Every structure is written in structure tokens, then in C-alpha cells.
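Tutorial, part two.
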Amino acid sequence: MNSLPDKSIFTPMMQQYLDIKEQYMDSLVFFRLGDFYELFFDDAIVASRILEIALTGRDAGVEDRVPMCGVPYHAVDSYIQKLIDAGYKVAIVEQVEDPREAKGIVKRDVVRLITPGTVIDQNFLDAKANNYITSISHTATNYFLSYADVSTGEVCCVELAKDNTLLINELIALETKEVVISSDFPKEVLAPLVNNYHVTISIEDETKEMSEYNYISQNITDSRLKLTINRLINYLIRTQKRSLSHLQEAHLYNSQQYMQVDIYSKRNLEIFETVRTASRKGSLFWLVDKAETAMGSRMIKHWLDKPLINSVDINYRYDIIESLQKEFLITAELKQSLRNVYDLERLVARIAFENANAKDLLQLKRSLKEVPLIKNHITTLKTKYNLRLDDEFSTFSELTDKLERSINEDAPFTIKEGGIIKDGYSEELDRYRELARNGKQYIANLQNRERERTGIKNLRVGYNKVFGYYIEITKGNLPLLKDEYGYILNQTITNSERFITNELKELEDTILNAEEKAINLEYELFVEIRNEIKRYIPALQRLAKAIAEIDALISFANVSMENRYTRPKLNDQHIIDIKKGRHPVVEKLLEDKFVENDIYMDENTSILLITGPNMSGKSTYMRQMALIAILAQAGCFIPCEEGNIPIFDKIFTRIGATDDLISGQSTFMIEMMEANNALQNATNNSLILFDEIGRGTATFDGMALAQGIIEYIHDKINAKTLFSTHYHELTALENNLTRLKNVHVKAVEQHQELIFLHKVENGPSDKSYGIQVAKLANLPPSLIKRAEKILAKLEQNKKEIVIDTQYNLFDFDFN
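Running the prediction step on this input gives:
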């Protein structure tokens, strides 16, 4: 809705809606009316289309009915999720005053703005992934990012060079759902995110520091990073309208502290999802994520996304994995305990947001019951193997005991309908419940006490709807009454008089309202317990981090043991020595035995030039090396018999054609851009994988480019490079490029059939076997015969192509 109609012509209720809508023009307003949330005008048109619900109309005091659609309040979550997934914001409007006290129309207001980056409801979230919202500021030379997962409390910030590709790569790596910028930020920079990843863009110009939350940036010294953190906090305060006390102190990370893998390479290597189906199954993450907790899964994902480059930190993880494998009984018991631990990070967030229900508190209690055993086992490992594992966390016995005493095991999801608090926790609540169950007995007991006190044997306690409970005494017994009894005349009838006492009226009020009071008191007690948990939030977050770490390491240990992975050795001599290496995912998915291959590159070898037919396994061999490096630097053991590798600062790949951020570019242009990214940013500590570079253009152009790229890497970068090609003429480069070595993936012909051995051997391939591969693809026999004749003629007339590596085909001086 670009503009609103004149409010004065509508009914008071619609005027109220328009007043609220005016403040939330970029959101779909869910307006609570009775048992429904209703949407009007353009909001209704948009929502009805996305939610596939009927678009109707509502009388609003004007001639034409206002467009309207609605969803029932009890099922609203599923509808909101669809809209959030589509990139919309949803403003929830509720009554904010008691209708019984309202003068005129009941007051309503937005109680929460749900946006793609601020979701905390577990039904809307992927348990194995973070849900980040990112704020960006910029100067002439740098971008400054702060990002938070509101559902866990994590806050981080990073400074980047002002490179748009670098910025987009970082935001995609974070899988950020929403970006918060100032109104003057150049929005076209973020167009790839909006167009291809449906990221929501939000505006926030307020950057003042909020004293309540200044602890978040207290250790950040850069004023520009502080500013972008403040922008994010101000946006969250404005939209969430509740405490953000669970947000943690911001962690400043330097991208140079981790192996850098750009978004293209992550996709090509299928780190988190497969290229063909975009599914988790078949990815590296799918293989190594055997965590018992959602927190552990998210930790593993983080480690794969940001592999380490510090050998001390990497070996620390190796040490723990070794100790876990040795202490298999402890590991098994830890796994069993972890199985009973819920998502503490997100539980804590719901408690802070005051969204937690009784089921959440029960999950917290059950999780905390496992903590003493987890702590004991971690302490044993830490002491026995001299590890730095975090066991400095509380066992929360006091909190666990309180939850055990207070919350019913079968408590309902709702928190305002009773049934939450256990008997015995509150004397007052027990009394209300007893009164609600046994009100008549209380009246009978009072009647007996009054008969005994007054000596009037026929004294009767009665009830009617007009006067409530009363004590009835016949006129003949009235002289027996004394002033100290406190009887107050309430009604005179023919043969008797009816009285009340303060005790009777209190009892009446208690009995008649006992159930309602019990429910209201239960809610108050529940809120009190939930609020009391807030003081434990920092300690619970430390516990969650420690549990996530040990869970992730146990997953690595078990995956390594089950799949025969070995502990890598790390060297600083630029040596790759992988004996009987395997592609971790392909090996798992293959029904047949995976063919193991060595990869050896000493300090004097920087390039392996790989030849061999299509389908022989060249790409698998190349990806295998990259995945081994990522696993090793993530702190996991690696799939080989023995492995000695350097620490890589960056990985670049160009393997196959995949969808790209930049629309409208040819496959060849994308190939050249990705190649250029590697050539511009790789160092001698990087790993480069180039598969069939140059195949997207004419043969001689492609061959010239391939040779030029190989020579540039060899002479100027000296990065470890696996370069596959069908240009067999390039194998002659080994004669002149001293750090280039030829290898090939072996295949043999038997009975005019091509058999792939998938074995990598030294030296170049003798031929490409293209026609044999075409046969395997079942091309028409007549076409195959024609191709064989053409090939024979070409080979007969083929002129020798001499590649002079002393003369660069680009006629280009690298200096």
C-alpha cells in the first residue's frame, strides 16, 4: 500500500486500523478482531494470494466494501510462517486494554513485529541453522557488519574491505535473512541478495547507544563497528518491543583468522547442500553432523563454514577427538545424556522474550538434569588428557529443583488456562483449588462451627443468586445471638432472618471465584518463575556453548571412527601427502567400494595437471582434496590412511557450471570471473581447483587461456593447484614448468568398451576417450560410427601443435 485513504470517511474501528497501518507501511498488519486476525486493503490482497485464502470484503462505513481476508488466531503461526518465508514482515495487533474498562472502541496496538531476521518461534526456524539479521554501515574504504541471531542471543561483528563481491559473499555465507541499513545506503549493492535470495531489506537511521545494552559493544573499540551494532540494537528495540537481555557481548572476528572459501566454492564443493537438488543430504555437513543437539549441529555448521588456520587450535580439536575415541564408554554416556538436552540457546531466547510456555520450562528442567553427568565426564576428560575443555559451568541444582517442584509434567501449551503449577508449590493456590473442588464441604464445615458457637441447632447456611450465601436463623432463636458473633442482618423473611458475616462473605468470594483466581494465580506464579530464570541467562548461555562444543566434537569423533578417518599431520613446508585418500561423501553414498587415491605434492610441486576421460573421476579427485583440507582445518580427522597437509588460507574452485549471483552472464563469462577471483586473491598458501577451464569458448582460445592461467599460477602465485583439462597438448608444459606435474585418471578399453578404473597415476593420459563416453551415453550407433570416421581423418591429418612455454600465448608480461 503506497498511500492510505482518507481515514475520516471510515468507521472508528477502521480508523484505528489505518492509524496503526500508517506506522507500519512496510508490514502486513494482522489486526485482531475476536477469534480472527484480519487484514485489509492491499495487505489483504497480498496475503490472500500467498496464503491461498479467500479474499472477501468488510463494511467500513463507505459505499464499497474494503478488501479483507482473515485467519483464525489459534492457527496463526502457520500463516505467519508462509509470509515470513516469502520475505514479508508481519505486525501483530492485539487489544491492549480490558474491554470491560474501555470507553469507546477498545485500544489496540502492535505488540510485536515479526520479520525474517527476528523470528524466535521454533516452528519457524531450522534447528540446524542460525537465523541472522545483519546491519551494515560503510565508509569510503570499508564495510562494517554486525549480525545477530535473535533466537540464540549470538552477536558478532566484522570489518571488510569495500568490495561488493566480498560483502555479498559474506552475507550469503551467513545466510542472513534480513539486512538493516540506513536510508542513504546504496541499495543497488544488495540487489543480488534481494533478487536471488529473497533477503528482506529494512531501514534504521537511529544509531544512538542504548545504556541498557551498551555491554554488547563494550569491548569493541572501533567507533564504526559500534555504530553498526547500535543501528542493529535500535532496530530490534523498535520492532520487538520487549527485553533483549539475552543478546550476548559482541564477538569481533577477523576473516583472516579462518580459511576463506567463497560462496561459489562452497556451492561447487557441496559443503552444505548439493548442487543438483539443493538438499542437505549428500553434502559434507550431512555426513559429519551426527550431533545429538541442535546446538551441536549449528556448531558443526559454523566450523565447516569457518575452518581454522591456527595449528594450535586445530590440534586442540584433534586431541579431544583422540581422547573421546579412547574413552568410548564416556563418549557413549555423554551421547546418551546429550540426547536428552534440548535447544538451550533458543529456550533462553524465548524466556528472555517472555514467549516461553510451560513445555519450554519442562524442556529446560530435563536438560539441566543431565548437566551434572555431562560436567563430570568433561572434567574427567579435561584432567586425564590435559585438555582446555570448558567445564567451568554451574550444575543449576537450585533452578532444577525449583522447576521440579513447580511445573506439572503434563502442563498444557497455553499458560492462561491453568494446569501448570504442581500441588504443594503455593499454599494460596492449593487453597483456591481445594475450594473449587470442595466448596460445599467448606460451607458445611462453617455451618457446623456456627451451630456450635451459637448453640442454635437449626442454624442453616443457604444461598441464592441475589444475596449470595447467608446464615438463616428462625425468629425464635434470635435472642441467642450475641454482638461478638459479628452477624449482620441482610434480609428479613416471614419466619426467619438472614445474616452475613465477614468470614462468610470472604468464603463466598473465594468459592465463587476460586477457579478463576486459581487460573490467574497460576499465570502469575508461572510468570514469576519464568522471570526468575532470566537471572540465569548468561550462565545458561555459557552452558549451551560448552554443550554445543562437546557435542560437535563427539560427532567428529564418531564419524571419524565409523569411516576410518585418520588424524592429519599439519606442516608448514607446503607438502601435501595423502595416502589412500577418499572423497568422504561419495564414499558414503557409493554402493561399491570407493577407489582410494594418493595425492602427493612436495614443496617443489605447485600444480597437478590432471587428464583423463569424462566420468573417470577427475572432479571427484579434485573435490576430495578440498574436502580433506576443509575437514582437517575444521578440526576433524580425514578420510585417508595417512595424511600430511599444509594449512590453507583460502580455497578457490571452478568446477562445473552452477547458478550464479550475477544474472544475465554467460557460463564462459562466469567461468572467467571465478577464475579471476582466484588469480587476484590467491596466495602461495591457497588451494586452487580448476576443472576444464577454457572449455566454454573456441578450442584454441580455450587452450590459450588455460595455458596462460597455468603459467600465471606457476610463476606468480605458486598456490597448490589441481588443474584438470581435456587439452592434452597442455601436458607438454611439464617439460618447461618445473613445479608442474602430470597425472591422469586411468581408463582402459576392453572389447571396444571403456572401463573406468578411477585410479590416479603419474603421467599424462594417452587419449580422451570422448567417443567411448558417448557410447556409454547411448548416442545413436550411426552417429558414433560417423564420429569415429571423422576422428580417424582428423588424427591422420593432424598437424603437430607445439606449445612453446618460453613464449606466452597472451604475449603478456606478468611483471
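The CA atoms of residues 173 and 214 lie 28 Å apart. In part three we will examine how such features are distributed along the chain.
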